[in-house]
UniProtKB/TrEMBL annotation:
One of its GO terms (biological process) is lipid metabolic process. SUPFAM superfamilies: PLC-like phosphodiesterases (SSF51695). InterPro entries: PI-PLC_domain, PLC-like_Pdiesterase_TIM-brl, PLipase_C_PInositol-sp_X_dom. Residues 51-193 form the Phosphatidylinositol-specific phospholipase C X domain. Signal peptide: none annotated. PANTHER family: PHOSPHATIDYLINOSITOL-SPECIFIC PHOSPHOLIPASE C X DOMAIN-CONTAINING PROTEIN, PTHR13593. This is Phosphatidylinositol-specific phospholipase C X domain-containing protein.
Length: 318
């Protein structure tokens, strides 16, 4: 028993030390980067607010959400705090400025996060279509994947193409250097990641897992995750030559053996340092490698930071 309490005290100290390290870095070096003062006048249409003739796909810093469809997951005040990574609906996230969605499904086409379930994936698709119908120049990356430990939904590739066909951007390695204006009116890059089924073929309407990569690590320690994100990003090709999307998740994950297991207090350890991360990317010489930046519990300032850095890129300030 004494050993258990000693371990919990040590874990609390480790978290506190890491929070102090990352906070000290921000205090000493600041969170400034090219475009950090830019604010889109309309987050719902922020791509349209930029020059879509100059805005190529590989210049965009895409604001993304982690476990995007968990806003109604589990039982309120019981299991929901353990898995709710977003509080906004998919539609509201898109209106706020989110442009990369991380959707996890199980065999019956319901949203899930581990063993907890939520609404049918139809609700996600309907929210995406509603947003697309209200905008004209916004492109969305929609990642659909079978959750770990679950089976693929039957005929899901057909389902996605039937539902989203008119909006789908065909897979093309040459797309990354194209301007948004050249890609419109197509609006959705849909990446389907099954666990057992065959992955989508290259050149089709759906993109496969080769085109969205990351280096996720399972930790609740903010400085460890921050450093890991920088390290793995620095090892990627520059966006000018990359033929895939690379995602950095500015999140940390609750651990079962830690006294704090609710998502919000854990992820808040790193969530507020998105601007610091972008500034460190620039300072460390990998500002030309940042592409997708994802977060839990997305807010306006996170979107503004991504859009601001994007604006600086197309203005030649990076």
């Amino acid at each position: 028993m004494l050993s258990f309490f000693s371990d919990q005290i040590d874990k609390h100290k480790a978290v506190s030390e890491e929070e102090k390290t990352i906070n000290d870095l921000e205090q000493s070096e600041g969170s400034h980067f090219p475009g950090d003062d830019y604010r889109p006048s309309d987050r719902k249409n922020w791509m349209a607010g930029l020059d879509v003739e100059k805005l190529t796909l590989n210049k965009i810093v895409w604001p993304g959400t982690h476990d995007s469809a968990t806003n109604d997951i589990g039982i309120p005040l019981v299991s929901r705090p353990l898995a709710e990574c977003q509080t906004l609906s998919i539609y509201d996230q898109l209106v706020l400025g989110t442009r990369v969605l991380d959707i996890r499904v199980q065999e019956d086409r319901h949203i899930c996060h581990g063993i907890l379930t939520s609404y049918n994936v139809d609700d996600v698709i309907n929210d995406v279509i509603r947003f697309l119908s209200e905008t004209h120049s916004e492109i969305v990356i929609l990642e659909m994947r079978t959750e770990y430990g679950h089976k693929d939904p039957p005929e899901f590739e057909t389902y996605l193409t039937d539902k989203l066909g008119q909006f789908l951007i065909q897979q093309d390695d040459n797309l990354f250097n194209k301007a948004v204006s050249e890609i419109l009116p197509k609006r959705v890059i849909c990446i389907w990641k099954p666990r057992e089924s065959a992955k989508p073929n290259r050149g089709g309407l759906l993109w496969n897992s080769d085109y969205l990569k990351d280096n996720w690590i399972d930790t609740d320690l903010p400085w460890k995750k921050f450093q890991s994100n920088l390290k793995h990003l620095s090892e990627q090709q520059p966006i000018s030559s990359r033929k895939y999307f690379y995602r950095v998740e500015n999140t940390v994950t609750p651990q079962a053996d830690n006294p704090v297991v609710w998502v919000k207090p854990v992820t808040d350890r790193i969530r507020k340092y998105a601007r610091l991360f972008i500034s460190q990317c620039v300072a460390k010489g990998c500002g030309d490698k940042l592409q997708i930046l994802s977060t839990d519990l997305i807010e306006e300032d996170f979107v503004d930071a991504c859009v601001g850095f994007t604006h600086a890129r197309i203005e030649g300030k990076v």
